[in-house]
Write a structure and sequence with these properties.
The radius of gyration is 18 Å and the shape is globular. It starts with a strand and ends with a helix. Strands 6, 7, 8, 9, 10 and 11 form a 6-stranded mixed sheet that branches. Strands 3-2-1-4-5 form a 5-stranded mixed sheet, with helices on both faces. By secondary structure, the protein is an alpha/beta fold. Strand 1 and strand 2 form a beta hairpin. The chain is built from 6 helices and 11 strands. It folds into 2 domains: about 120 residues, Nucleotidyltransferase, domain 5, CATH 3.30.420; about 80 residues, ATPase, nucleotide binding domain (Nucleotidyltransferase, domain 5).
C-alpha cells in the first residue's frame, strides 16, 4: 500500500511515508503547538522523497489521540484537508495503540499497558493484548493519576511517562520507552483498512479523553499546598 502517516499528539512530530514495495521513510520535527507550522512542509518533503503524490495514496493515516489538544486538532485538520483535496480516505489510529505497537517492535511485548503523559499530574492509559495477528484493547482508554496505574501479571509498561512519573508508577513491572511512532502506525494500517477502518475526509476526528487542558490558579495553589 502507498501510505502517509503522522502523529502530533506529543512534543515530537513523527511522520513517515511508505511506497508499496519499498521501505518506509520517516522524519521527525517539533510537535505540540509548533506542529501547525512545520507539519505540511515535512509531509511534502516525505512524499517527494518517496516518489509519491497525494493522489497515489491508499490512505492518509493520523494519530487521533489522546494527546495534546493543539496537536490533535492540527493532525485532524491536516489529514482532513489533504484527504479531501486528493479524494483519498483517512485512517485515525489511537495513539496508545501506536505506543503498544512500538513496544512490540522494540522488545516483542504482546501484553502492554500503554501510557502517555497527559500533563497536570496525570497519564493516559490503555491495556492492549496482541494475539499473534492483531491488537485488542482490554477496556477503555483512561485518564488517571500515575499512582493509580495497575499492571496485570504478564504485562509491560510502555510509553513516554517514565521520566516524569517514574517514581509513582509500579516499580515491579517491566518498562519499555515507547512512542506513538509513524512507522508503528504504518504497520498497523493495512489490517485496520482491511477491517473497514478507513473513512472519508469528514471522519478525521480527534479522540479527547479530557475536557480541560489547564488547571485554574486555585487548583495550582491547592496542588502546591498539598506538596
Amino acid at each position: 500500500m502507498n501510505l502517509l502517516a503522522f502523529d502530533t499528539s506529543t512534543e515530537t512530530l513523527r511522520a513517515a511515508a511508505l511506497r508499496s514495495g519499498t521501505s518506509a521513510i520517516e522524519q521527525e520535527g517539533a510537535g505540540g503547538a509548533q506542529a501547525s507550522a512545520c507539519l505540511l512542509p515535512l509531509l511534502q518533503s516525505l512524499l517527494a522523497r518517496a516518489g509519491l503524490a497525494l493522489r497515489d495514496l491508499d490512505a492518509i493515516v493520523f494519530g487521533r489521540g489522546p494527546g495534546s489538544f493543539t496537536g490533535l486538532r492540527t493532525a485532524c485538520s491536516v489529514a482532513q484537508g489533504l484527504a479531501f483535496g486528493a479524494n483519498v480516505p483517512v485512517l485515525g489510529i489511537d495513539t496508545l495503540l501506536a505506543v503498544a505497537e512500538d513496544a512490540r517492535r522494540r522488545c516483542g511485548a504482546s501484553r502492554v499497558v500503554a501510557l502517555l503523559d497527559a500533563r497536570m499530574g496525570e497519564i493516559y492509559m490503555g491495556h492492549y493484548v496482541h494475539d499473534g495477528a492483531a491488537w485488542q484493547r482490554d477496556g477503555d482508554i483512561l485518564l488517571a493519576r500515575p499512582e493509580a496505574v495497575r499492571v496485570p501479571e504478564g504485562f509491560v509498561l510502555a510509553g513516554n511517562a517514565f521520566g516524569i512519573y517514574g517514581d509513582a508508577l509500579p516499580k515491579d513491572a517491566p518498562r519499555v520507552d515507547a512512542v506513538p511512532s509513524a512507522t508503528a502506525m504504518l504497520r498497523l494500517a493495512p489490517a485496520l483498512i482491511a477491517a473497514g477502518g478507513a473513512h472519508d475526509a469528514a471522519q478525521a476526528l480527534p479522540v479527547y479523553i479530557r475536557d480541560k487542558v489547564a488547571q485554574t490558579t486555585e487548583e495550582r495553589a491547592q496542588a502546591r499546598r498539598k506538596t
